[in-house]
Design brief:
The structure is a single chain. The chain is of the alpha+beta class. It has eleven helices and seven strands. The longest helix is centred in the N-terminal third of the chain and has 24 residues, at 9-32. The chain has a five-stranded mixed beta sheet. The protein has a two-stranded antiparallel sheet with strand order 1-2. α1 packs parallel to α7 and α2 runs antiparallel to α7 (148-170). Helices cover 49% and strands 12% of the residues. It has helices at 9-32, 48-65, 77-80, 88-99, 105-109, 111-126, 148-170, 178-195, 247-254, 260-265, 279-285, and strands at residues 134-136, 145-147, 206-213, 218-224, 227-232, 241-245, 269-272.
C-alpha cells in the first residue's frame, strides 16, 4: 500500500500562505479589470459582484477570527446565525446567502480594494502563528474551531474557486495549478471532509476509501456509522475503493466546478481497488456546501 511519509507542517503552511498571497494579488488584478460586476458569474443566481461580496465576507470572517486579527471587526455570529442553527450544510447555506448583502453601494464599487485589504489583514494577523493554532469558526457549528492551517487552506480555496467563478462570468482566464490545489487538499480538506459528512446518509455505512492525489497527498477516508475520519499518509490497511485523481480535477469536482464525467474522460480521475463501483459514494456522503 506504500510507505508512510512525513511532512513538515510549518513549511507546508508557509507555502500555503505564499500561495494565498499570490492568488490574492491575481484576484485583485482580475477584479480591477471587470467592468460589469452585475454580469452573471459561474455560480447560479449570483452576479460577479455577488461572488466578490461573498469572498470579501469570508475574508472578513477569517481575518477577524485569527488571534492577531483586527478586534474591531469581530463578528457577532450568534446574532448573524440567529434562527439558522442546523446541519453543517444548512449553516453554510445560510451564511452564504447572507454574505452577498454585506458589501453594497460604494464598497462594492471598490471591491478590489476591499478584497486586498481584508486578505492582507488575514495574512498579517496570522503571521508567525503555529499551524495548529485554533481559529474560532462558529459558522461551522457552535463552539467550532479549526486549525490555522485549515483556515489558511480554506482562504486559498475560496480565492481560487471564487476567482474562477468571477473569471468565468467576465470571460477572463483564471489558471488553477496542481500545486495550489494540492495545498488546499493538504491544509483544508483533511479537516473539512469529516465536517461535511452527511451524517444521516452515513448511518450504518462502513466504507474505506484510498484517495491518491497525483503528487500527494494520499488520504485514508474512513466512514463508519455516521462519522468520518481522514488521515494523511496512513499506514497500510485494506480499502474498499481507491480513487486516483489529479489535484486540480479533484478540487474542481469536489466543489461542483467540473462534472465528474469530464474529469474521467480527460484521464484526470479514475477508480480502482476491490470495489471501484463504490467511488461515487464518496461524493454522495461528503458533499461541498
Amino acid at each position: 500500500m506504500g510507505a508512510v511519509t512525513a511532512y513538515d507542517p510549518a513549511a507546508e503552511h508557509e507555502r500555503t500562505r505564499v500561495a494565498l498571497a499570490a492568488a490574492l494579488a491575481r484576484l485583485v488584478e482580475l477584479v480591477g479589470g471587470i467592468d460589469d460586476l452585475e454580469a452573471p458569474s459561474g455560480v447560479p443566481v449570483w452576479s460577479v459582484g455577488d461572488v466578490g461580496a461573498h469572498l470579501a465576507a469570508a475574508y472578513l470572517a477569517f481575518g477577524a477570527a485569527v488571534p492577531g486579527g483586527p478586534a474591531g471587526e469581530a463578528i457577532d455570529w450568534e446574532a448573524v446565525l440567529a434562527g439558522q442553527e442546523g446541519t453543517f450544510g444548512e449553516r453554510i447555506a445560510a451564511v452564504n446567502a447572507l454574505s452577498v448583502g454585506l458589501i453594497t453601494g460604494a464598497e462594492r464599487k471598490r471591491l478590489g480594494a476591499v478584497l486586498a485589504e481584508r486578505g492582507a489583514a488575514f495574512l498579517r494577523g496570522s503571521a508567525g502563528l503555529a499551524p495548529d493554532t485554533p481559529v474560532p469558526a462558529p459558522w461551522y457549528g457552535p463552539g467550532r474551531t479549526v486549525p490555522l492551517a485549515a483556515a489558511t487552506g480554506l482562504m486559498l480555496n475560496e480565492t481560487l474557486l471564487h476567482g474562477l467563478d468571477m473569471a468565468r462570468g467576465a470571460r477572463r482566464p483564471w489558471p488553477l495549478g496542481p500545486e495550489e490545489a494540492s495545498l488546499v487538499i493538504r491544509q483544508a480538506m483533511v479537516t473539512m471532509m469529516p465536517l461535511a459528512l452527511d451524517t444521516e446518509k452515513a448511518q450504518g455505512v462502513r466504507l474505506a476509501f484510498d484517495l491518491v492525489l497525483r503528487g500527494g497527498p494520499r488520504l485514508a477516508v474512513v466512514i463508519e456509522d455516521g462519522a468520518a475520519t481522514v488521515t494523511r499518509d496512513a499506514p497500510p490497511r485494506p480499502y474498499d475503493c481507491r480513487i486516483t485523481a489529479a489535484p486540480t480535477a479533484f478540487l474542481l469536482v469536489s466543489f461542483g466546478r467540473m462534472p465528474i464525467w469530464k474529469a474521467i474522460a480527460l484521464g484526470r480521475m479514475r477508480a480502482g481497488g476491490r470495489k471501484p463501483w463504490l467511488a461515487p459514494r464518496l461524493s454522495e456522503l461528503i458533499t461541498a456546501p
